[in-house]
Structures are given as C-alpha cells and as structure tokens.
Protein: GAF domain-containing protein
Organism: Shewanella denitrificans
Amino acid sequence: MKADFYDTLDRQASALLAGEDDVIAAMANFSALLNESLEDLNWVGFYIKREDQLVLGPFQGKVACTRIQLGKGVCGNAAAQNITLRVADVHQFEGHIACDSASNSEIVIPVRRGNEVIAVLDIDSPSFDRFDSEDQLGLEKLVKSLESCLFA
C-alpha cells in the first residue's frame, strides 16, 4: 500500500534530517533518499528560488537545466502559483522545458518557509503517468517534514 510506503519513507527522512539546519545539506540527502527509494525515476532534485528565477540545487540524475524563469515550464509554474503540479505527459504541457528528453511525466512540489516558496522539489520519470494522487499526497507529506526540519 502506497500510504504505508510513504509513511515509512517519511520516518526515514525525518530521522535523516534530524538536527540538520543547512538547506543544501538537507536537500542533498533528501534527494538521494528519494532517488534510492522511489522506482521508475530519472531525475529528482531541487530548484532554489532566487528573485524571479529558479536555480539548480542538489539533485540526483543527469545534467539539468541550470536556471528556470518563474512561470515557465512545470517547475516555474509550480513555484509561481505556489501549488503542486502533477503532469502525466510533459509533452502535452504548454511551455514544458525539456532538460532531459527521456522524461515523460513529472511532479513538482513547492518547498515553503511559512507561505513563501523558497524552492521546488522536481521529480521526473521516463514513464507516462508515473505519479498518481497517492504519490502526490505522500510526497507533499515528505516535503512538509523537510520544511519542519529546516524551518521549525
């Protein structure tokens, strides 16, 4: 059951991040944990908000786009709108930025300090429709735990 999987993963993430207040170190280990734990991914990592753009942060995967304007692509839209975006087929997403042509589906979750978006967690898959509503709920819970560890 996916909910149980994500509950276990959340406990692992919380233990891994306990006492760590450096954003880069926490994001690096968090992305490594997700990359090791989730199946059927080809990229997982963070883009950190810097003024009107997102700048590449810690990640696992192939080389990636370095900068994304707010409001552009899946990541830029998720950050600008302060919402999770789950895209079953990135090729159908208007304005999709193809950093890796092997990516076919994507989920992007804002990372917040209070109500302010400070980064996004971006996860790509080579499979179409890889992420469902249970994945979204589980990953949003994990991001809440990351926020709690960093900004409590």
